[in-house]
Design brief:
The protein contains six helices and no strands. Helix 4 packs antiparallel against helix 5. About 5% of the residues have low confidence. The longest helix is centred in the middle third of the chain and has 20 residues. It is mostly helical. The radius of gyration is 21 Å and the shape is globular.
Amino acid sequence: MTTPTTDPAAEAVADLSALLGQIASDPAPPAAEPPAGAQADAEPVYRNVEAFVGDYLAHVVERRLASGPNSGLNWCPRWWAHPEAISRLYALWRAWETLRVSDPQTGMSIWWRDHLDPHLAALTAEYGPFNRCNPTKHTDPRPLPVDPAPPEVLAQLPDADR
C-alpha cells in the first residue's frame, strides 16, 4: 500500500480558494444590484483593522520585502505604531468592506486599483511611513515639524473663530 503524496499545486489552489472564499460573503451568484438596505444590514467580514491586516491583507499582498542590500517593499511589522499607517489601513479596510457589499461584481477590482495600490505605494515608498522599517525592525515615527500659524493667517480662513 502506498501513501498518497501531497500535490503542491493542489495545495496552492486550495489556499487561494480559501482566500477567495473570504471575499465572497454569499456563495450564490451576485445580484445585479444589492437589495435596498443591504449595506446597512451587512456584517463586516473582519471585526477591526487589525483582523483585516493580519487575516487578509498580509496573506493576499505578495511583494518582495526589503532586506539588507536587496531592494524591496518597506514594511513594518508594527504598522499600528505609525499614525499614517493606521489611518490608511483603516480606510482600506472600510473600503474593502463597503465595496464587497455595494459592488459584488467589480468592487474588489476597484478596491485593488483605487484603494490598495495607491495606499500601499504611499505606505511603503522611499519617503513613506515605513521608510526606516523592515520586516524585522520597527523605527518610531517622527512627526512633521510644525510651527504655530500666525493669528492673522488663521483669521483669514473661512472656519476661523470669530
